[in-house]
Amino acid sequence: MANSGEEKLKLYSYWRSSCAHRVRIALSLKGLEYEYIPVNLLKGEQSDPDFKKINPMGTVPALVDGGVVISDSLAIIMYLDEKYPEPPLLPRDLHKRAVNFQAASIVLSGIQPHQNLGVIKFIEEKINSEEKTAWVTNAITKGFTALEKLLVSCAGKHATGDEVYLADLFLAPQIYGAINRFQINLEPYPTLATCYESYKDLPAFQNAAPEKQPDAPASTS
């Protein structure tokens, strides 16, 4: 393991969180051992004062590496990539690096926040369940349309070629959630569908899957 001899990393996670999911993929790709500490978002454990000391925002994931605490998924992934550079999560080619960051940004700022538990709960309370579903579906389809156009000319086996990079870490959880939580059809997005199928052959992605996590309900495994 890459962190042999060092204090084991600690990951505060929730099994269904797509933000935590992408960090789990990074840890798995890097071959890093870590302690999984579940934070049940449905029970409000993210608002516990002890957890707020770790992440004042009250969100997952949060990574503890000795005296270092990081509580944003992209920041965690970049930290891990610099500390444990193999395998690299960004290509050397400048254009492909930019595409990876752009794909990650579309998910990070254009899709995921709209399906955040707190946001959709607020919408459901203020309006109704049907409008909540329409809100989430619109955000996902808009983002997927942009991702499809962005990646169609540079995808190979995976999002930006035949190697796994940052974009794949963001795509896999987002597509998983779109299919399993919101019943989004991937037929209009053949490039994304091909990428998603490729992840099923990668142990690092499968080991990080929500249903494989220790806090996942038994019915999902």
TrEMBL record:
Residues 93-218 form the GST C-terminal domain. One of its GO terms (molecular function) is glutathione transferase activity. Residues 7-88 form the GST N-terminal domain. PANTHER family: MALEYLACETOACETATE ISOMERASE (PTHR42673:SF4). One of its GO terms (biological process) is L-phenylalanine catabolic process. Belongs to the GST superfamily. Zeta family. Its EC number is 2.5.1.18. It catalyses: RX + glutathione = an S-substituted glutathione + a halide anion + H(+). This is glutathione transferase. The keyword Transferase applies. NCBIfam families: maiA (TIGR01262). GO terms for cellular component: cytoplasm. Keywords: Transferase. CDD domains: GST_C_Zeta, GST_N_Zeta. It is an enzyme of class 2 (transferase). Pfam families: GST_C_3, GST_N.
